[in-house]
C-alpha cells in the first residue's frame, strides 16, 4: 500500500466500540442537520494501521535516528522519562476548567516554571500561556502595545528588527499592527549601532533582537543598543530562540531587555514532533506585568479548607493581571509541554549553566573540527566562516560561497550530500545575510565522537564532484523532490477516482 | 544531568584541541557588565528517579477526570483514544523530527500530514486543509483575519466581521487579540432565547468580510438554521463555521452547506485533554482562500526519478519567506497532535466515526430524557437538538450544586457563571462516548436530591 486511501476494507467493519446507551433510532435529526454522506475515509484494521504508520515512521528522520545539527532549532535529545510523565493521568486527563482545588499539583508545577524562568531571564513576571515562540513574540508585543496605549503614548508605530532576525519577529509585530523597520547588520554580522541610532526615535515602540544573534554570535554592544532604544522611550524585546546558549551566564534582564519569550521546546526540550507542539512563555519586567494574558499562578498560605488540598502547605491559585490583554490561547497554554520542560529543567536545577556551557563547547569544537578536517582534506578553500569571530556561541554559520564560485557546489548540494552520509542537514540559506549559508547547531547532547565523525564526513562531501553532488541524495527514501512541480501542480489531498 | 551530557568530564580534551584552556575562554565575548555573578537560585539537579517520583507526587495530587464520574466538557472532550495511537506516536522518527525542511528524509511525516489534510478535508467537506494551528481559538481567530484579507477589497462593510455572541468568551478574547492589529471590527450576532441564531439579524452581515458561527454552539445546541446562512450573506462574505469534529459523524459537514472556512478544536479526535494543550486547531477552506490562508501545507510532488514524493508547498505565504507580509506569524504548530488525530481517524473509518457520534449523541439524549423528568430543574433549550452537552437550569446556585456533587465523586459539569456572570444557576453537562447509563442514572439521582433540597430551603 503506498498511501492510506488504498486501504478499503468492508463497510461497517473495523474499529470496534461498545454499544451506544440507546439505539441509533432514538436520534431524530431534521434534514437541515443530518449528514447525507460520510467522509470517504479509508477502512483499516488495527494491524494494517499499525504497519502503515510504522512504515511511514521508517521514512522519517528524527534525532533518535541520527545527528540533527539543524541550526536555530536546537535539536537536542529528548529524555524519555518526560514522555512517561506527560502520560500520568494527573496531566493527561486534566481539564482546564477544573476548579483550583482539583489541580493544585499542576498549579504548583506552573508556579515553579514561572519562577524558574523569572530567575533565569532576570524578568519579574512570566506567563506560560503562549504555545509557540512566534505566539510568545506576538503576545509580548501586544502587551507593550497596551502599555503604551494606557500611557497615551500612541505615536509609537514602529518596531525595529535587524535584517538577520527570524521571520517570525517582523511577522508577529506586523500582526499587532506595527510598521516594521529593518536595519542592516554590520559586515561582521553584528548589530550596527549607527543604523539603530538613525532609525530610533519617538515613534519607536519596540526593538526585537535575539542574543546570541542568528549567526550564533554574542552581541557585545547589547547594553548600548538597549540604552539607545530606552533613550527614545522604546522597549527592548528579547527573542529567546537562542536562550540555551546563555543560561546561568548572562540574562536578558542584565542586558537591559523589558520582555522576552522562551522557546521551552528548544531550551528545555519538548520533542519537536515534526513541527510542533512547542511552548512559548514570555517574561516581562514589572512595568509590563499588568498587561500579561491571564490567568497567572500565585502562591500563598492556604486558608480554611484549602489546607486539605494544598501542596507542601502552600495554596496555588489563578489570578488576572489588572490590564490583561486577554487570551492568546483558549485554555492555559500547552500544559503537557510545560510539564515535560519542568521535568527537563529539574534534571539540571541550579546547574543549568553546565547545559549552556556544553552547548557552546560542542558548537565551537565542531566549528574547529570542520575547519581542521577540511584543511586536512585540502578543501578548506571551499568553505569559510559565515562571520568572523574568535568564538561562536551555541551555533555557527559557514558560507559555501567559495564552493559555488569555484565548483558550482551550493549549500543545498552539500546539505543533500550530508543526507547521504546519514545526517540531517544543517539549516541552509538562513540567515539571509550570509551567502550560501549553512547554520550548524550540534547541541550539548552529542558526543565528541559524533562531532569528529560529522566533521570528517563534511570534508568528504566537499571532495565529491559537483555532478555527483547535484544528483544527491541517492540513499534516501526518495531523491531530490521537485518543489516547483508541487507548487505548479497543486495536489493537497488524495484525488479520489471521481475527481 | 550527567546522563544528558556525553562530553561531561571531557571538556579539557576538547578545549585543548581548540587551543583553549578553560570553558571561560568560550564566553570571553560576553562583557563583564552583563555577566551573572551568582549561581542560579534554583534547587540542585535531580536524577530521573527523583524527577519521576516528584512528578507522580505533584500530578497525583490532581483530580484526573477518570478518577471521578465526569460531565465536564465545554469545548474539550474526554473521548477514548485507541492504544495504538499512543504506541505509534512515540516512535522516535516522528516524535523527535523537526519541521520537514529536507523532504528526502521526511517523507513519513510529510505523507502522514498530506493524509491528515485529506481526512480533514473529507470530514468538513472542503477541498483544502492545513496541517494544524495551535487550537480551536487561534484557528477561529486566523479565519477572521484570513477572510478580511480575501474579501476586504470588495466588501461594502470594510474591515468588519460578524461573530456569534455564543462564542466562548475565552475564544472571543483570542479573536480580539488577533484582530486588533489589522483594525478589524468584530460585531456580534444575536440569538433567540432557544439558543438558535437570529437569522433575520444575519442579513445585516451581508457585505462584511465574514460571519463566524459554531455548530454545535457552546451551549451544545445544533442549529439547523445555519444551513441557510450562505444564502443570506452571499458570495462575497465568508461563512466560517467552527465544529466539534466528532459531531460530523452525524451532523452535516459545513462545506456541504456553503461554509468557506471550517475551524475547530481537533482534540476529540486523537488527543487527551492534557490540561488544554497541546491539542490542535483544525483549519480548512475552499480554494479561493488557499493563497491567503495561514499555516503549513503539504503537496504531493515527484522526485528526480518521477517517484511520488511529498514536500511543503505554498511557503511563500509564510513568515520565513514573506516576513512581515506573511499571512500569519505561525511557525511551530501542532503537527504531532495532528498526527495522533490522523491515526485515530484512520482507525475509526467512516462507520467508526458515525458510531462514535451516535454514542455521544445517544448519551446526551438519554440524559436529557431522564433530567427532564425532574420537576425542580429545567432544561432551557429543551426544544433544540443537542450533540453531547446541554444547559441545566437549577433551583439554586450552580457553584453549590457542583460542590455537592463533588462530595459524591461526581464532576457535574461546567459552571456557566464563568462565562455569563448573571447565569449563576446554569451548568453545562456533557455526555460523551465515555458516559454510560449508570453514570447518567447517578447524576440524575443526585441532581434530583440536591434540587429538591433547594426547594425545601426556599
Structural notes for this entry:
The complex is a heterodimer of chains A (499) and B (458). By secondary structure, chain A is of the alpha/beta class. Chain A has three domains: 1-59, no CATH class; 82-351, 3-Layer(aba) Sandwich (Aspartate Aminotransferase, domain 2); 353-484, Aspartate Aminotransferase, domain 1. Chain A is built from 18 helices and 13 strands. Chain A has helices at residues 46-58, 81-86, 89-92, 104-121, 133-150, 168-175, 193-199, 222-231, 252-255, 264-267, 286-289, 335-348, 352-376, 401-407, 411-420, 448-463, 466-471, 483-488, and strands at residues 125-127, 158-162, 179-183, 204-209, 235-240, 259-262, 282-284, 296-300, 315-319, 384-385, 396-399, 427-428, 437-440. Chain A has a seven-stranded mixed β-sheet, sandwiched between helices. In chain A, strands 10-11-13-12 form a four-stranded antiparallel β-sheet, covered by helices on one side. A two-stranded antiparallel sheet of chain A has the order 8-9. In chain A, helix 4 packs across helix 12 and helix 5 packs across helix 6. Chain A is globular and about 75 Å long. Chain A starts with 45 loop residues before the first helix and ends in an 11-residue tail after the last helix. The mean pLDDT of chain B is 96. Chain B is α/β, with parallel strands linked by helices. Chain B has helices at 11-17, 48-60, 83-89, 92-95, 107-124, 136-151, 169-180, 199-202, 229-233, 319-322, 335-371, 398-407, 437-457, and strands spanning 69-70, 128-129, 160-164, 185-189, 210-215, 221-222, 238-243, 261-265, 281-285, 297-302, 308-313, 385-386, 389-393, 410-411, 414-415, 426-430. Chain B has two domains: 66-77 and 349-457, Aspartate Aminotransferase, domain 1, CATH 3.90.1150.10; 83-345, 3-Layer(aba) Sandwich (Aspartate Aminotransferase, domain 2). In chain B, the strands form five sheets. A seven-stranded mixed β-sheet of chain B has the order 2-9-8-7-5-3-4, with helices on both faces.
Amino acid at each position: 500500500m503506498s498511501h492510506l486511501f488504498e486501504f478499503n476494507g468492508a463497510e461497517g467493519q473495523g474499529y470496534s466500540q461498545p454499544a451506544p446507551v440507546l439505539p441509533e433510532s432514538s436520534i431524530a435529526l431534521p434534514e437541515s442537520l443530518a449528514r447525507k454522506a460520510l467522509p470517504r475515509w479509508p477502512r483499516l484494521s488495527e494491524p494494517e494501521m499499525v504497519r502503515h504508520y510504522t512504515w511511514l515512521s521508517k521514512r522519517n528522520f528524527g534525532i533518535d535516528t541520527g545527528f540533527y545539527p539543524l541550526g536555530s532549532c536546537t535539536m537536542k535529545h529528548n529524555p524519555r522519562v518526560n514522555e512517561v510523565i506527560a502520560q500520568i493521568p494527573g496531566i493527561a486527563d486534566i481539564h482546564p476548567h477544573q476548579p483550583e482545588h482539583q489541580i493544585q499539583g499542576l498549579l504548583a508545577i506552573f508556579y515553579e516554571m514561572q519562577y524558574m524562568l523569572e530567575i533565569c531571564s532576570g524578568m519579574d513576571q512570566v506567563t506560560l500561556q503562549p504555545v509557540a515562540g512566534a505566539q510568545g513574540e506576538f503576545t509580548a508585543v501586544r502587551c507593550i502595545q497596551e502599555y503604551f496605549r494606557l500611557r497615551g503614548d500612541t505615536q509609537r508605530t514602529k518596531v525595529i528588527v535587524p535584517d538577520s532576525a527570524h521571520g517570525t519577529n517582523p511577522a508577529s509585530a506586523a500582526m499587532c499592527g506595527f510598521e516594521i523597520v529593518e536595519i542592516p547588520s554590520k559586515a561582521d554580522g553584528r548589530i550596527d549601532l549607527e543604523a539603530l541610532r538613525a532609525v530610533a526615535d519617538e515613534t519607536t515602540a519596540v526593538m526585537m533582537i535575539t542574543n546570541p544573534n542568528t549567526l550564533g554570535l554574542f552581541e557585545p554592544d547589547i547594553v548600548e543598543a538597549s540604552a539607545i532604544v530606552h533613550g527614545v522611550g522604546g522597549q527592548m524585546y528579547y527573542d529567546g530562540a537562542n536562550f540555551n546558549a546563555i543560561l546561568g551566564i548572562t540574562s536578558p534582564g542584565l542586558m537591559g531587555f523589558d520582555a522576552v519569550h522562551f522557546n521551552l521546546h528548544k531550551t528545555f526540550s519538548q520533542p519537536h514532533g515534526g513541527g510542533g507542539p512547542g511552548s512559548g512563555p514570555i517574561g516581562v519586567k514589572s512595568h509590563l506585568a499588568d498587561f500579561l494574558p491571564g490567568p497567572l499562578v500565585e502562591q500563598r498560605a492556604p486558608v480554611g479548607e484549602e489546607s486539605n488540598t494544598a501542596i507542601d502547605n502552600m495554596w496555588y491559585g489563578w489570578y488576572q493581571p489588572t490590564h490583561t490583554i486577554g487570551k492568546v490561547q483558549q485554555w492555559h497554554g500547552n500544559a503537557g509541554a510545560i510539564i515535560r520542560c519542568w521535568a527537563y529543567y529539574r534534571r539540571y536545577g541550579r546547574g543549568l549553566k553546565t547545559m549552556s556551557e556544553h552547548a557552546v563547547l560542542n558548537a565551537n569544537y565542531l566549528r574547529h573540527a570542520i575547519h581542521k578536517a577540511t584543511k586536512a582534506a585540502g578543501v578548506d578553500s571551499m568553505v569559510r566562516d559565515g562571520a568572523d569571530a574568535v568564538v561562536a556561541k551555541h551555533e555557527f554559520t559557514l558560507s559555501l560561497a567559495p564552493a559555488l564560485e569555484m565548483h558550482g557546489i551550493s549549500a543545498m548540494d552539500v546539505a543533500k550530500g550530508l543526507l547521504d552520509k546519514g545526517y540531517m542537514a544543517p539549516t541552509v540559506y538562513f540567515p539571509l545575510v550570509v551567502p550560501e549559508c549553512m547554520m550548524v547547531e550540534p547541541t550539548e547532547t552529542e558526543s565528541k565522537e559524533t562531532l569528529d565523525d560529522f566533521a570528517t564526513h563534511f570534508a568528504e562531501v566537499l571532495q565529491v564532484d559537483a555532478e555527483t553532488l547535484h544528483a544527491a541524495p541517492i540513499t534516501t527514501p526518495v531523491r531530490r523532490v521537485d518543489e516547483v512541480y508541487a507548487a505548479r501542480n497543486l495536489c493537497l489531498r488524495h484525488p479520489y477516482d471521481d475527481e | 544531568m550527567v546522563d544528558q551530557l556525553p562530553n561531561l568530564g571531557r571538556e579539557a580534551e576538547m578545549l585543548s584541541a581548540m587551543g583553549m584552556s578553560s570553558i571561560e575562554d568560550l564566553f570571553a565575548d560576553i562583557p563583564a557588565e552583563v555577566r551573572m555573578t551568582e549561581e542560579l537560585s534554583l534547587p540542585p539537579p535531580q536524577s530521573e528517579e527523583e524527577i519521576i517520583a516528584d512528578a507522580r507526587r505533584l500530578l497525583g495530587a490532581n483530580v484526573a477526570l477518570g478518577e471521578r464520574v465526569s460531565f465536564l466538557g465545554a469545548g474539550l472532550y474526554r473521548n477514548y483514544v485507541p492504544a495504538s495511537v499512543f504506541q505509534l506516536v512515540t516512535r522516535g522518527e516522528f516524535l523527535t523530527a523537526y519541521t520537514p525542511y529536507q523532504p528526502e528524509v521526511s517523507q513519513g511525516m510529510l505523507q502522514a500530514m498530506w493524509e491528515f489534510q485529506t481526512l480533514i478535508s473529507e470530514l468538513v467537506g472542503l477541498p483544502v486543509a492545513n496541517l494544524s494551528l495551535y487550537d480551536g481559538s487561534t484557528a477561529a481567530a486566523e479565519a477572521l483575519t484570513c477572510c478580511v484579507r480575501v474579501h476586504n477589497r470588495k466588501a461594502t462593510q470594510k474591515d468588519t466581521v460578524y461573530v456569534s455572541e455564543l462564542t466562548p468568551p475565552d475564544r472571543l478574547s483570542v479573536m480580539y487579540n488577533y484582530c486588533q492589529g489589522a483594525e478589524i471590527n468584530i460585531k456580534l450576532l444575536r440569538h433567540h432565547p432557544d439558543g438558535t441564531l437570529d437569522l433575520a439579524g444575519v442579513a445585516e452581515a451581508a457585505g462584511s468580510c465574514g460571519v463566524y458561527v459554531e455548530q454545535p454552539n457552546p451551549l451544545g445546541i445544533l442549529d439547523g438554521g445555519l444551513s441557510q446562512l450562505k444564502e443570506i450573506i452571499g458570495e462575497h462574505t465568508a461563512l466560517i463555521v467552527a465544529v466539534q469534529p466528532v459531531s460530523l459523524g452525524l451532523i452535516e459537514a459545513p462545506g456541504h452547506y456553503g461554509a468557506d472556512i471550517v475551524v475547530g478544536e481537533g482534540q476529540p479526535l486523537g488527543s487527551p485533554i492534557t490540561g488544554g494543550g497541546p491539542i490542535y486547531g483544525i483549519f480548512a477552506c475552499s480554494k479561493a482562500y488557499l493563497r491567503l490562508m495561514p499555516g503549513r501545507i503539504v503537496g504531493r510532488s515527484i522526485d528526480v526519478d518521477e517517484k511520488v514524493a511529498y514536500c511543503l508547498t505554498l511557503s511563500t505565504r509564510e513568515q520565513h519567506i514573506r516576513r512581515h507580509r506573511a499571512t500569519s506569524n505561525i511557525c511551530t504548530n501542532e503537527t504531532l497532535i495532528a498526527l495522533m488525530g490522523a491515526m485515530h481517524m484512520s482507525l475509526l473509518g467512516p462507520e467508526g466515526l458515525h458510531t462514535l457520534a451516535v454514542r455521544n449523541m445517544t448519551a446526551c439524549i438519554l440524559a436529557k430524557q431522564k433530567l427532564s423528568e425532574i420537576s425542580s430543574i429545567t432544561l432551557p433549550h429543551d426544544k433544540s437538538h443537542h450533540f453531547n452537552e446541554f444547559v441545566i437550569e437549577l433551583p439554586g446556585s450552580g457553584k453549590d450544586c457542583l460542590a455537592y456533587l463533588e462530595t459524591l465523586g461526581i464532576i457535574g459539569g461546567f459552571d456557566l457563571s464563568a462565562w455569563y456572570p448573571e447565569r449563576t444557576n446554569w451548568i453545562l453537562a456533557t455526555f460523551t462516548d465515555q458516559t454510560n447509563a449508570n453514570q447518567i442514572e447517578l447524576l440524575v439521582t443526585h441532581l434530583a436530591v440536591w434540587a429538591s433540597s433547594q426547594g425545601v430551603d426556599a
